[in-house]
Protein backbone atom coordinates (compact mmCIF):
# COMPACT_ATOMS: atom_id res chain seq x y z
CA UNK A 1 0.00 0.00 0.00
CA UNK A 2 1.37 3.31 -1.03
CA UNK A 3 0.97 6.48 1.05
CA UNK A 4 0.23 9.61 -0.84
CA UNK A 5 1.44 12.99 0.24
CA UNK A 6 -0.36 16.26 -0.12
CA UNK A 7 2.10 17.47 -2.74
CA UNK A 8 2.61 14.79 -5.30
CA UNK A 9 5.24 16.65 -7.32
CA UNK A 10 7.41 19.73 -6.88
CA UNK A 11 5.59 21.56 -9.64
CA UNK A 12 2.13 21.02 -8.13
CA UNK A 13 0.53 24.10 -6.54
CA UNK A 14 0.70 24.47 -2.77
CA UNK A 15 -3.00 24.09 -2.32
CA UNK A 16 -3.54 21.34 -4.89
CA UNK A 17 -7.02 20.04 -4.72
CA UNK A 18 -8.21 22.62 -2.18
CA UNK A 19 -9.03 26.29 -2.29
CA UNK A 20 -6.54 28.87 -1.00
CA UNK A 21 -7.61 30.71 2.15
CA UNK A 22 -9.19 34.11 1.57
CA UNK A 23 -6.74 35.94 3.85
CA UNK A 24 -3.62 34.84 1.95
CA UNK A 25 -3.65 37.53 -0.78
CA UNK A 26 -4.53 40.18 1.77
CA UNK A 27 -1.74 39.04 4.11
CA UNK A 28 0.86 39.01 1.33
CA UNK A 29 -0.22 42.47 0.17
CA UNK A 30 -0.08 43.76 3.76
CA UNK A 31 3.43 42.35 4.24
CA UNK A 32 4.67 43.93 0.99
CA UNK A 33 3.19 47.33 1.89
CA UNK A 34 4.65 47.16 5.42
CA UNK A 35 8.10 46.50 3.99
CA UNK A 36 7.69 49.36 1.51
CA UNK A 37 6.56 51.68 4.31
CA UNK A 38 9.57 50.76 6.48
CA UNK A 39 11.94 51.42 3.58
CA UNK A 40 10.36 54.83 2.90
CA UNK A 41 10.46 55.74 6.61
CA UNK A 42 14.09 54.66 6.91
CA UNK A 43 15.18 56.68 3.87
CA UNK A 44 13.17 59.73 5.00
CA UNK A 45 14.63 59.65 8.51
CA UNK A 46 18.18 59.29 7.16
CA UNK A 47 17.61 62.17 4.74
CA UNK A 48 15.98 64.45 7.32
CA UNK A 49 18.50 63.54 10.01
CA UNK A 50 21.47 64.93 8.10
CA UNK A 51 22.48 68.33 9.34
CA UNK A 52 25.75 70.20 9.39
CA UNK A 53 28.01 69.38 12.31
CA UNK A 54 27.87 72.14 14.88
CA UNK A 55 30.26 72.62 17.76
CA UNK A 56 28.75 72.39 21.20
CA UNK A 57 29.84 75.31 23.37
CA UNK A 58 31.88 74.27 26.39
CA UNK A 59 30.74 75.85 29.62
CA UNK A 60 33.40 78.01 31.18
CA UNK A 61 34.79 76.71 34.43
CA UNK A 62 35.91 79.28 36.93
CA UNK A 63 38.46 78.43 39.58
CA UNK A 64 37.05 78.61 43.06
CA UNK A 65 39.28 80.22 45.64
CA UNK A 66 39.39 78.07 48.75
CA UNK A 67 40.18 79.61 52.11
CA UNK A 68 42.26 76.85 53.66
CA UNK A 69 42.22 78.48 57.09
CA UNK A 70 38.41 78.54 57.13
CA UNK A 71 38.25 74.90 56.06
CA UNK A 72 40.75 73.94 58.76
CA UNK A 73 38.73 75.81 61.40
CA UNK A 74 35.52 74.12 60.21
CA UNK A 75 37.20 70.73 60.62
CA UNK A 76 38.30 71.57 64.16
CA UNK A 77 41.91 72.66 63.71
CA UNK A 78 43.41 75.18 66.11
CA UNK A 79 45.01 78.27 64.69
CA UNK A 80 48.77 78.19 64.44
CA UNK A 81 50.63 80.93 62.67
CA UNK A 82 54.04 79.63 61.70
CA UNK A 83 55.61 81.37 58.74
CA UNK A 84 58.45 79.49 57.06
CA UNK A 85 61.69 81.43 56.85
CA UNK A 86 63.02 81.76 53.30
CA UNK A 87 66.77 82.25 53.14
CA UNK A 88 68.26 84.56 50.54
CA UNK A 89 71.87 83.32 50.92
CA UNK A 90 71.26 79.85 49.46
CA UNK A 91 71.36 80.54 45.69
CA UNK A 92 75.06 81.37 45.85
CA UNK A 93 75.96 77.98 47.36
CA UNK A 94 73.33 75.63 45.88
CA UNK A 95 72.56 75.59 42.16
CA UNK A 96 69.70 73.59 40.67
CA UNK A 97 70.90 72.14 37.37
CA UNK A 98 68.10 69.71 36.51
CA UNK A 99 64.77 68.27 37.62
CA UNK A 100 62.99 64.98 36.93
CA UNK A 101 59.45 65.33 38.19
CA UNK A 102 56.52 63.07 37.29
CA UNK A 103 53.46 64.64 35.69
CA UNK A 104 50.95 63.42 38.29
CA UNK A 105 53.19 62.16 41.09
CA UNK A 106 52.65 65.01 43.51
CA UNK A 107 55.33 66.22 45.91
CA UNK A 108 56.40 62.80 47.22
CA UNK A 109 58.37 61.79 44.13
CA UNK A 110 60.96 63.23 41.80
CA UNK A 111 64.72 63.74 41.54
CA UNK A 112 66.74 66.98 41.62
CA UNK A 113 70.25 67.61 40.26
CA UNK A 114 71.89 70.04 42.68
CA UNK A 115 75.45 71.37 42.50
CA UNK A 116 77.00 72.46 45.81
CA UNK A 117 79.79 75.09 45.85
CA UNK A 118 80.36 74.80 42.09
CA UNK A 119 81.14 71.08 42.23
CA UNK A 120 79.66 68.38 40.00
CA UNK A 121 75.87 68.07 40.56
CA UNK A 122 74.52 65.18 42.58
CA UNK A 123 71.13 63.46 42.30
CA UNK A 124 68.79 63.81 45.27
CA UNK A 125 65.36 62.18 45.65
CA UNK A 126 62.54 63.67 47.72
CA UNK A 127 63.47 63.13 51.36
CA UNK A 128 67.24 62.81 50.72
CA UNK A 129 69.64 64.94 52.77
CA UNK A 130 71.67 67.54 50.85
CA UNK A 131 75.02 68.67 52.27
CA UNK A 132 74.21 67.23 55.73
CA UNK A 133 71.92 70.13 56.64
CA UNK A 134 69.06 70.30 54.12
CA UNK A 135 66.47 67.72 53.01
CA UNK A 136 64.67 67.77 49.67
CA UNK A 137 61.06 68.49 50.55
CA UNK A 138 59.44 68.70 47.11
CA UNK A 139 60.37 68.55 43.44
CA UNK A 140 58.22 70.40 40.95
CA UNK A 141 58.51 71.21 37.26
CA UNK A 142 61.15 73.96 37.54
CA UNK A 143 61.71 74.32 41.29
CA UNK A 144 62.96 72.34 44.28
CA UNK A 145 62.23 73.15 47.91
CA UNK A 146 64.87 72.28 50.52
CA UNK A 147 63.87 72.22 54.18
CA UNK A 148 66.25 72.40 57.09
CA UNK A 149 66.82 68.94 58.58
CA UNK A 150 67.31 70.30 62.12
CA UNK A 151 64.71 73.10 62.20
CA UNK A 152 61.24 72.85 60.63
CA UNK A 153 60.97 76.57 59.81
CA UNK A 154 63.82 77.24 57.38
CA UNK A 155 63.28 76.63 53.68
CA UNK A 156 65.19 77.27 50.49
CA UNK A 157 63.54 77.35 47.07
CA UNK A 158 65.88 76.60 44.16
CA UNK A 159 64.77 77.38 40.62
CA UNK A 160 66.15 76.35 37.26
CA UNK A 161 67.73 79.18 35.23
CA UNK A 162 65.39 80.76 32.70
CA UNK A 163 65.53 78.96 29.33
CA UNK A 164 67.33 80.87 26.62
CA UNK A 165 65.27 81.76 23.59
Descriptive account of the structure:
It is a single chain. The protein is an alpha+beta fold. The chain has a domain at 85-159: SH3 type barrels. The protein is 23% helix and 24% strand. The strands form 2 sheets. The chain has a 5-stranded mixed β-sheet, with no helix packed on it. It has a 3-stranded antiparallel β-sheet with strand order 2-3-4. Strand 5 (129-130) and strand 6 (134-139) form a beta hairpin. The longest helix has 27 residues, at 23-49. It is elongated, with a radius of gyration of 41 Å. The mean pLDDT is 78.
Descriptors:
single chain; 165 residues; alpha+beta; SH3 type barrels; five-stranded mixed sheet; three-stranded antiparallel sheet; 3 helices; 24% strand; elongated
**Outline type:** elongated
Give the strand tally: 8
The CATH topology of the domain at 85-159 corresponds to SH3 type barrels
Major sheet: arrangement of strands: 1-8-7-6-5
Number of helices: 3
Provide the structure class: alpha+beta
Order of helices and strands: HHEHEEEEEEE
Into which percent range does the helicity of residues fall? 10-25%
What is the CATH class designation of the domain at 85-159? Mainly Beta
Radius of gyration: 41 Å
Span between N and C termini? Answer: 107 Å
Strand content: 15-25%
Estimate the mean pLDDT confidence. 78
Overall CATH architecture of the domain at 85-159: Roll
Low-confidence stretches: none
Largest sheet: 5 strands, mixed
Amino acid sequence: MRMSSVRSSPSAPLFAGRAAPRWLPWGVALLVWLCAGFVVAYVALRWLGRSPVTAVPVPSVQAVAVDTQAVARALGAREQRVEPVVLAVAPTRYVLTGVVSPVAGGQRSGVALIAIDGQRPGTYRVGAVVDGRWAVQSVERRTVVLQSADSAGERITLSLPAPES
